[in-house]
Amino acid sequence: MERWMGTIHTFHLSFGEMTITPVEFAAIMGLPFGGQSVVFDDWMRTLDHSGL
């Protein structure tokens, strides 16, 4: 029996605990891991509503 423990981010299996890293998750889901970084500019957080 396996069970996901969301509070500690591990699977509890009959033989013990198992933690999945972001790289392992990407491999399981078939997602590309790597490439260029996504940069967040904080100035974009403020919206200009003056034109409404």
TrEMBL record:
Name listed for the protein in its UniProt record: Aminotransferase-like plant mobile domain-containing protein
Species per Swiss-Prot/TrEMBL record: Jatropha curcas (Barbados nut)
Lineage: Eukaryota, Viridiplantae, Streptophyta, Embryophyta, Tracheophyta
